[in-house]
TrEMBL record:
Origin: domain of life: Bacteria
Domain (Radical SAM core): residue spans on this chain: 106-314
Designated name of the protein: Radical SAM protein
The keyword Nucleotidyltransferase is annotated on this UniProt entry: no
Gene Ontology MF term list: catalytic activity; iron-sulfur cluster binding; metal ion binding
Keyword tags: Iron, Iron-sulfur, Metal-binding, S-adenosyl-L-methionine
CDD domains in the cross-refs: Radical_SAM, SPASM_rSAM
C-alpha cells in the first residue's frame, strides 16, 4: 500500500469514527467534533467553510439548526450521504483531482452531469433539454463506464439531468447499487416519485432528488403543465414521510422571479422538508428559446439580493448558479468543477453550452477533458474578473464564439442545430444591459 492509499484509509477510518460519535448525541458532540476537525485538517483546507460552521455552532444560529435537522433524516441514508459526499467526493476526491489536473494540465471535474435519457413526460416552455429531442439514451453500460472512468480521476459526484431521468428508474437505482461509494443527485420534475421509488432510495441510500419547482401553482403550471404543482407536493410529502433528503431546483425568469425569491416560497420549501435549493437563471439556448423569459438587470439583481438576505434568515442551503461565482472563482464549466454528457454521448463543457468536439463513445473521459474545447476553457478561465459576469455565453459577448470556433466544436442540438453566431444575437444584448448592474453590485461587494 502506497502512502496516498494509507492516508486515504486512515482518513476514511477517522470519518467513520466521527460519524459514530455524532450519532450518539449530535447536539453535544458537534462542537467537540469541530475542534477535532480543525486539528486534523490540512492548513487552508475549506478554511472559510469551517469558520462559518464554527461561528454558527457557537452562536446556535440558523445553520446550527440546519445541521441538527439533518439528524431527522433516515440514519442509514444520512451516514451514506455524509461518507460519499463529504469524504469520497469532497475530501479524498478533491485531492486526487488536483494531483491529476496538475499532471495532465487540464481541468478535472468534481462532478459529472449526465443525461440518462432525452425522453421526458413533460413539455415545459423554454426547456433547454428539449433541444436534444426525445429518442436518445445512454445505456446502462455507458453510464457505468463514465462513472468508472470518473472515479479513476477522483470524481465521486454524479448528477443526472435530462430529459427526465426517472423515466429510467430501474437503471438509476441499478447504478446506485453498482457504485455505492458515489453520491448521486438527480434533477427531476418529481411526477414519477412514488412509494416504490422511495423504498428503493431507502435501500440504496446514495440517491438524492432535486425537484423542479418554478414558484407557486400558477407560475409553475403555466410553464410545466396543469397538475404538476400538486404532483410535486405529493412527491415532497412522500420523501418527507420517509425521512429522505431532497432539494428543489428552480429556474428564475422575467415571469416568476418575484415568486421564487419571496419569503413565502422559501418557507414553502422549508416546511416541505427541502434541504437545499439550486437557483438557475433562464438561458436562451436553442432556436426555440423564449427571449422574453430572460430576466432584466433589475429582476436579476432583485433575486441576487433576496437569496443573500435569506441565507442569514432561512435554514435552507441555496446555490445561485449565476450569481454565486465569487465563491468558486468564476465559471465552473469545462471540467473545472463539472462537465456535461448528453444522452447521445456528446461531452459538453456545460449543461447550457450545447457544443462539443468529442463523444464518450469514442474517447475516454480524460481525453475529452484534454480536447480542444475543454482545453480552451481551461486556458481562459475565469472569463471575467467581475464574478457577477462569469459565463462565456451569457455575460461576455463573443467569448463562447471564440471558444467554439477555435476548437471547431459543433452544435449538439440534433432537432434544430443552432449556429453559435445566432446564439450571440440573443445573448449580446443581455450582456450589454447586465454589465452596468453587475459592475455596480461587484463594486459594492468589494467595499
Amino acid at each position: 500500500m502506497n502512502f496516498s492509499s494509507l492516508q486515504s484509509s486512515v482518513q476514511k477510518f477517522g470519518m467513520n469514527q466521527a460519524l459514530k460519535y455524532l450519532e450518539k448525541d449530535p447536539e453535544t458532540n458537534i462542537p467537540k467534533l469541530m475542534n477535532l476537525v480543525d486539528k486534523v485538517m490540512p492548513e487552508g483546507w475549506y478554511g472559510s467553510q469551517r469558520k462559518l460552521i464554527r461561528e454558527q455552532i457557537d452562536e446556535k444560529g440558523i445553520w446550527y439548526d440546519y445541521i441538527l435537522k439533518l439528524y431527522d433524516l433516515d440514519a442509514g441514508v444520512r451516514q451514506t450521504v455524509f461518507k460519499n459526499f463529504i469524504f469520497n467526493a469532497s475530501l479524498n476526491g478533491s485531492t486526487k483531482q488536483e494531483e491529476l489536473s496538475e499532471k495532465y494540465n487540464c481541468n478535472i471535474p468534481w462532478a459529472v452531469l449526465l443525461d440518462p435519457t432525452s425522453a421526458c413526460n413533460l413539455h415545459c416552455t423554454g426547456c433547454w433539454a428539449a433541444e436534444y429531442g426525445h429518442q436518445l439514451n445512454l445505456s446502462l453500460d455507458d453510464i457505468d463506464s463514465i462513472i468508472r472512468q470518473g472515479k479513476e480521476l477522483g470524481t465521486y459526484m454524479y448528477i443526472y439531468t435530462g430529459g427526465e431521468p426517472l423515466t429510467r428508474k430501474k437503471d438509476v437505482i441499478k447504478i446506485c447499487e453498482m457504485h455505492p461509494d458515489c453520491a448521486f443527485l438527480s434533477f427531476t420534475n418529481g411526477t414519477l416519485i412514488d412509494e416504490e421509488f422511495c423504498q428503493d432510495m431507502l435501500r440504496v441510500k446514495n440517491f438524492v432528488p432535486a425537484i423542479s419547482l418554478e414558484g407557486f401553482e400558477t407560475a409553475n403550471d403555466s410553464r410545466r403543465g396543469d397538475g404538476c404543482y400538486n404532483s410535486v407536493k405529493r412527491a415532497m410529502e412522500l420523501l418527507k414521510k420517509h425521512k429522505l433528503p431532497f432539494g428543489i431546483s428552480t429556474c428564475y425568469t422575467s415571469v416568476n422571479y418575484k415568486d421564487i425569491a419571496s419569503d413565502e416560497f422559501f418557507d414553502l420549501m422549508i416546511d416541505a422538508g427541502a434541504l437545499f435549493c439550486w437557483f438557475f437563471h433562464y438561458m436562451p439556448v436553442g432556436n426555440g428559446a423564449v427571449k422574453e423569459l430572460l430576466p432584466t438587470p433589475e429582476q436579476r439583481a432583485y433575486v441576487y439580493h433576496q437569496i443573500r438576505k435569506f441565507r442569514s434568515e432561512k435554514p435552507i442551503f441555496t446555490m445561485d448558479f449565476q450569481n454565486d461565482a465569487q465563491y468558486v472563482g468564476g465559471c465552473i464549466a469545462g471540467g473545472r468543477r463539472y462537465l456535461h454528457i448528453n444522452a447521445k454521448g456528446d461531452v459538453e463543457p456545460c449543461v447550457f453550452i450545447h457544443y462539443s468536439n468529442c463523444s464518450i463513445h469514442n474517447t475516454t473521459l480524460l481525453d475529452a477533458l484534454r480536447s480542444p474545447l475543454f482545453q480552451a476553457y481551461h486556458d481562459n478561465q475565469p472569463f471575467n474578473e467581475n464574478m457577477l459576469r462569469p459565463c462565456p455565453m451569457l455575460e461576455n459577448a463573443g467569448r463562447i464564439q471564440e471558444l467554439v470556433k477555435q476548437s471547431k466544436a459543433v452544435n449538439t442540438d440534433y432537432e434544430s442545430p443552432e449556429d453559435v453566431d445566432h446564439l450571440l444575437e440573443k445573448t449580446a444584448p443581455y450582456a450589454k444591459n447586465w454589465k452596468p448592474m453587475a459592475d455596480k453590485l461587484w463594486d459594492e461587494q468589494k467595499k
